[in-house]
Design goal:
Helix content is about 25%, strand content about 20%. The chain has helices at about 15-25, 80-95, 180-190, 215-230, 235-240, 245-255, 335-355, and strands at about 5-10, 35-40, 105-110, 115-120, 125-135, 155-160, 170-175, 195-200, 205, 240-245, 260, 265, 270, 280, 285, 310, 315, 320-325. The strands form four sheets. Strands 1, 2, 3, 4, 5, 16, 17 and 18 form an eight-stranded mixed β-sheet that branches. Strands 6-15-7-8-11 form a five-stranded parallel β-sheet, with helices on one face. It has a three-stranded antiparallel β-sheet with strand order 12-13-14, with no helix packed on it. The mean pLDDT is about 90.
Length: about 350
C-alpha cells in the first residue's frame, strides 16, 4: 500500500479553472509538487477542449479568455479549437512549471485525520488541508429519458460524442437542445443531412446587440443566486439567450432553425408527439448539456436538499476547506480565472488561521 503524501492543497482538474487556480497558488508562494499538486484524469493537456469536435474551429469559439499571466496570441481561427487550446494549455503548464500529474482518476474525497482531507486516487492517496475542485462538466453529459428510448433502431449520441457533420451525410437527424451546441450542430449538419428536425423544451431566446459587461454581470448574478441557495447550477447561456449572429440569421431564413416543441416519446423509427405527429429519424443527437462532475465529493456530504452544493464565492458552505472553481457562475473562461484567484486568496487565509493539527 502506498504511503499517503501530504500537501497543503490539492487541485483536481487541469482545464481553465484548474490551471488558473494552480497559477495563483504558485504566484502566492506555494511550490508545485511540494505545497500543492494538480491531478488531471485526461491523457494530456487541454482540459475538455482536447475532446471537442474538429469542425469547432478557434474562430467559432465564443468568449475564450486567456489564462492569467500568458496571452493566447496569433492563433489561426481556421484551426480546430481542440488543437489551438490544447497547445496553449501545454505551453502554459510548462511555462509556469505546474507539474500536472496525469492521467490520475480521483475516486473519492473524504474526511482524513488531523482536520485534513483525504484524496483517494488511481495513483495513490493525498492528504491536504484544502481542496480546489475544478472538474468542470464534460465528463457528465446529461441524457434525458423519454418513453420508448430503448426501442430506437437508429443511433443516439450526445454532444460529448459529436464527430463532426460529415458523419450525418444523407441521414435524417433529430437535434435535441436549444443551447449553443445544438444550434451549431444543426447549422453544420443541415447542408449534408437528408433531413433535420430541431426540438427544444422551451422556445429559443435570441439576443440582439452587444453583450456588454453590465449584461454579463446580471447573467452571472442569476446563476450565482442558484448556487447560494444550494440548487443545481444552470449555465450562463441559459439566462443570457443566444447571440443573433449572421450564421443564426441565415439559419432562420433558410428554415434550418425551425424549432419544434419537445416530442413526447421515441419510436423504433423516430420520434412522436401526443397529437399524433411523427418524424422518422436515423439519428437522435442530444445537445442537452452537462452536469457538474462532483461525484467524488459525495463522502463529504456537501449537497443540499435542492440537489446542488451551496457555494459562497467559491467556498462550499458545508466545508470551508473545499472550493469549487468553474462551478455555476464561474463556469466560463473569464469566470474561472477570477474564481481561481479568489479561491487561492481564501485558502491562504484559511491556512494561516488554522495551524496543522498535531
Amino acid at each position: 500500500m502506498n504511503d499517503i503524501r501530504e500537501v497543503e492543497a490539492v487541485v483536481i482538474g487541469a482545464g481553465q479553472a484548474g490551471l488558473s487556480s494552480a497559477y495563483h497558488l504558485r504566484r502566492t508562494g506555494f511550490e508545485p509538487g511540494r505545497d500543492f499538486v494538480v491531478l488531471d484524469h485526461s491523457p494530456g493537456p487541454g482540459g475538455a477542449w482536447q475532446f471537442r469536435w474538429p469542425s469547432l474551429t478557434y474562430g467559432k469559439v465564443h468568449g475564450m479568455h486567456a489564462l492569467p499571466g500568458m496571452e493566447l496570441t496569433e492563433a489561426d481561427p481556421a484551426r480546430p479549437s481542440s488543437e489551438v487550446i490544447t497547445e496553449y494549455f501545454d505551453r502554459y503548464e510548462r511555462a509556469f512549471d505546474l507539474r500536472v500529474r496525469r492521467p490520475v482518476d480521483v475516486r473519492a474525497v473524504r474526511e482524513g485525520t488531523g482536520g485534513r482531507l483525504l484524496v483517494e486516487t488511481s495513483d495513490g492517496d493525498w492528504s491536504a488541508r484544502a481542496l480546489i475542485n475544478a472538474t468542470g462538466t464534460w465528463d457528465r453529459p446529461f441524457w434525458p429519458r423519454y418513453p420508448g428510448q430503448e426501442t430506437f433502431r437508429g443511433r443516439q449520441l450526445h454532444t460529448a460524442q459529436y464527430p463532426g457533420p460529415e458523419a450525418f451525410a444523407g441521414l435524417r437527424v433529430v437535434v435535441v437542445g436549444g443551447g449553443a451546441s445544438g444550434t451549431q450542430h444543426l447549422l453544420e449538419i443541415a447542408p449534408l443531412a437528408a433531413e433535420t428536425t430541431w426540438v427544444t423544451r422551451r422556445p429559443p431566446v435570441w439576443r440582439e446587440g452587444p453583450f456588454d459587461e453590465e449584461a454579463g454581470r446580471a447573467a452571472v448574478a442569476l446563476v450565482e443566486e442558484r448556487v447560494r441557495q444550494g440548487l443545481p447550477p444552470r449555465s450562463v447561456v441559459s439566462v443570457t439567450g443566444l447571440p443573433l449572429n449572421d450564421a443564426i440569421r441565415q439559419g432562420l431564413a433558410d428554415g434550418v432553425l425551425d424549432r419544434q416543441p419537445m416530442f413526447d416519446r421515441i419510436t423504433p423509427d423516430g420520434v412522436a408527439w401526443a397529437d399524433g405527429r411523427q418524424v422518422s429519424a436515423d439519428v437522435i443527437l442530444w445537445a442537452t448539456g452537462f452536469r457538474p462532475a462532483v461525484e467524488h465529493l459525495a463522502p463529504l456530504r456537501l449537497r443540499e436538499r435542492g440537489g446542488g452544493i451551496r457555494v459562497e464565492g467559491t467556498r462550499a458552505v458545508a466545508d470551508p476547506r473545499v472550493h469549487l472553481v468553474g462551478y455555476g457562475p464561474s463556469a466560463s473562461t473569464v469566470g474561472a480565472n477570477r474564481a481561481g484567484r479568489a479561491a487561492v486568496r481564501d485558502i491562504r487565509r484559511l491556512l494561516e488561521e488554522e495551524p496543522v493539527a498535531a
